[in-house]
Write a structure and sequence with these properties.
With about 325 residues, the chain is of the alpha/beta class. It is about 45% helix and about 15% strand. The chain binds S-adenosylmethionine (SAM).
Length: about 325
């Protein structure tokens, strides 16, 4: 991952993209203002990992070209994951990996706490630059996942007028939802220091608060990549508050999270299991959950039934009905 961050910091994907998609090693080195020898070693490794493509002309000139994967490293654009990689490679997020034993041995202190002295959300509220890194990283994921939800489940918000996005970050997901489902109004709900930095959007209202206390009322609650940050008891509390917030007649809670399949063969399972390790490193009690664990959690939170709707992503869309 650190080599990928190095590629982002150097602007390699951007340079190739601006040049029509490919460049010789000499051109790339001159454009990035670095000596060809070290750059070649980095590019040889990243080409081996299929992040860039390496070829040779008949005159033995080395040519590097972009790939669908390298376009995820562009600094801008709807498919860019650069901010996500910058977050995961920040010293604050890397340090807990070196204290992972604390969490595994259940020593009473999480890996994140052991490394940074407080839990991830307190740290973010006390360090606004880190909070922005988190928000930008989450927005990257939202830009990839929300369009897939809109495309693959176009009836998800039929008959719904208002949606509250619980732990919605900077409101990227809400603004995409109101655009994709133009009949809904959105409430982007997050901690006050996050909501106050919400992106302006005509049909989205940013509201600050604490989801463990209460959640603004709406027909439907949408909650993406939040429950995996928390342990079961905390999730039950959040889900009960979601249940309180939604309409009694047409209410539902739309949970966008991974569903781990113990013997899954799909291409996302490796990423789901890796994310579970990320939860181990970065949260106090968070985890990715199996179908059975989701079922147990939703049952305890008072939801009578639920459906799991797959999308072309690491996450599925779990729709829970009171
Ligand atoms: C992993 S991020 C997910 C952001 C967004 N849902 C997305 O997927 O792009 C978790 C979010 O939960 C928010 N959060 C943490 N504790 C919260 C609380 N007590 N009340 C409301 N939001 C909270 C964080 O500020 C953060 O924006």
């Amino acid at each position: 991952m650190a080599i990928v961050k190095c590629a982002i910091d150097l602007g390699i994907a951007d340079a190739l993209h601006k040049n029509g998609g490919s460049m010789s090693l000499t051109e790339l080195a001159s454009s990035l203002k670095c000596p060809p020898s070290s750059l070649y070693r980095v590019m040889r490794f990243l080409a081996h990992r299929k992040i860039f493509k390496l070829s040779q002309t008949s005159q033995s000139t080395l040519i590097f070209a972009e790939t669908p994967l390298s376009r995820r490293l562009l600094s801008q654009g709807k498919n860019s994951m650069a901010a996500f990689i910058q977050l995961e490679c920040s010293p604050v997020m890397l340090a807990p990996w070196l204290c992972l034993n604390n969490r595994v041995q259940e020593k009473g202190v999480s890996a994140f706490d052991a490394a940074n002295g407080e839990d991830v959300w307190s740290y973010a509220s006390n360090n606004i630059a880190h909070s922005k890194l988190i928000n930008d990283a989450m927005a990257c994921d939202a830009r990839v996942v929300v369009p897939r939800i809109i495309k693959e489940w176009p009836n998800l918000f039929d008959g719904v007028s208002t949606v509250v996005d619980v732990g919605g970050g900077d409101g990227t997901a809400s603004s995409m939802l109101v655009e994709g489902f133009p009949w809904i109004q959105g409430i982007n709900f997050d901690l006050p220091h996050v909501a106050s930095e919400g992106l302006p959007c005509e049909r989205v209202q940013h509201v600050g608060g604490n989801m463990f206390e209460s959640i603004p009322k709406a027909d439907v609650a949408f909650i993406m990549w939040v429950l995996h940050d928390w342990g079961d008891d905390e999730c039950i509390q959040i889900l009960k508050n979601c249940k309180e917030a939604i309409a009694k007649d047409k209410g539902k809670v739309i949970i966008v999270e991974s569903v781990i399949e113990e013997d899954a063969k799909d291409k996302f399972e490796d990423a789901r299991l890796m994310l579970d390790m990320v939860m181990l490193a970065h949260t106090t009690n968070g985890k990715e959950r199996t179908f059975k664990e989701w079922s147990c959690l939703l049952n305890k939170a008072g939801f009578g039934h639920f459906d799991v709707n797959p999308i072309e992503a690491v996450q599925s869309v779990i729709v829970a009905y009171p």
